[in-house]
């Protein structure tokens, strides 16, 4: 398509909008992907999937999503679970703090919304870990709400298809997404855009970089956090002396990793329950 918008106000005519919509829906008709979260309109299930899908490939999420919904089928079951159980099930998705924030969301929803995930972007945005994209994506996928949500895929599509500079401001991208949205088909439209961006108009093909780029995982600070949490969710506790010996090569110092996890509310330091004493690290309990 690649119709230049020049430096004029970012506004599309009807022909541009209709041609773009047809292109996306035609691709979706022939290449539609199937995922379990696309088969439900339950707002809680959609919220779980949207947070799992942040910075994680959809194919990797499928098994975890199904297991999660079996173990924590609703807000109450998640809110009342132990953090250790939550992190154990989350393990493998990366960014363990997302799992923790999802549980905090569930607790807030129980306290403020009677256990029902809110339906409006304004209310959703008041929840921990719910940002500009997710507060829109949850109601559009669950309720077919007529709002446009812009993630990395959709930003890349709009920039490429309308020949925009990569530094186009977020509000301008959002304004275009609003114009392109076909009313009454929000759920189908965003699924179509996701598939078009993931299967056809990829970052590698376009050369358009995401606004935030993940650092190399192996050996990164995030890697050490993940390794330590993975051990903690399968054991009662770990001695600090043992941790220091095992992760002594950590370039940031293992104590800094521990301090970060403590600040994030994922773990606590405590005295050993055993007679020999010593300091231990364990998953935080409420």
The structure class reads: mainly alpha
> Percent range for helical residues?
40-55%
Tally of alpha and pi helices: 15
Per CATH, the superfamily of the largest domain is Hypothetical protein, domain 2
- How many strands appear in the DSSP assignment? 3
State the domain count: 3
Global outline? elongated
Query: Average pLDDT across residues?
Result: 88
Evaluate the radius of gyration.
22 Å
Q: Which fold name fills CATH's third level, the topology of the largest domain?
A: Endonuclease III, domain 1
How much strand content do the residues show? under 5%
Biggest sheet layout: 3 strands, antiparallel
What is the chain-wise order of helices and strands? HHHHHHHHHHHHHEHHEE
User: What is the CA–CA distance across the termini?
Assistant: 54 Å
The CATH class assignment of the largest domain is Mainly Alpha
Going across the major beta sheet, what is the strand order? 1-3-2
CATH architecture of the largest domain: Orthogonal Bundle
Uncertain segments of ≥5 residues (pLDDT<50)? Answer: 2-9
């Amino acid at each position: 398509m690649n119709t230049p918008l020049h430096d004029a106000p970012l506004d599309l005519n009807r022909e541009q909008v209709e041609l773009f919509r047809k292109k996306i829906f035609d691709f979706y008709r022939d290449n539609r992907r199937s995922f379990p979260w696309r088969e439900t309109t339950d707002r809680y299930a959609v919220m779980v999937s949207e947070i799992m899908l942040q910075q994680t490939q959809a194919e990797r999420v499928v098994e975890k999503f199904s297991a999660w919904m079996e173990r924590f089928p609703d807000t109450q079951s998640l809110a009342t679970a132990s953090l250790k159980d939550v992190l154990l099930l989350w393990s493998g998705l990366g960014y363990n703090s997302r799992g923790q924030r999802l549980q905090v969301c569930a607790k807030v929803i129980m306290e403020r919304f009677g256990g029902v995930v809110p339906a409006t972007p304004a209310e959703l945005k008041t929840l921990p870990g719910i940002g500009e994209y997710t507060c829109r994506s949850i109601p559009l996928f669950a309720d077919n709400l007529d709002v446009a949500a812009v993630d990395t895929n959709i930003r890349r599509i709009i920039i490429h298809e309308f020949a925009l500079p990569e530094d186009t401001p977020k509000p301008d991208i959002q304004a275009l997404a609003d114009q392109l949205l076909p009313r009454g088909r929000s759920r189908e439209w965003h699924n179509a855009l996701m598939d078009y961006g993931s299967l056809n108009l990829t970052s590698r093909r376009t050369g358009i970089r995401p606004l935030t780029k993940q650092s190399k995982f192996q050996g990164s600070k995030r890697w050490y956090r993940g390794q330590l949490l993975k051990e903690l969710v399968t054991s009662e506790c770990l001695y600090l002396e043992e941790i220091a010996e095992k992760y002594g090569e950590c370039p940031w110092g293992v104590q800094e990793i521990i301090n970060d996890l403590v600040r994030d509310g994922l773990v606590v330091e405590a005295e050993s329950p055993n007679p020999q004493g010593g300091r231990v690290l364990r998953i935080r309990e409420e």
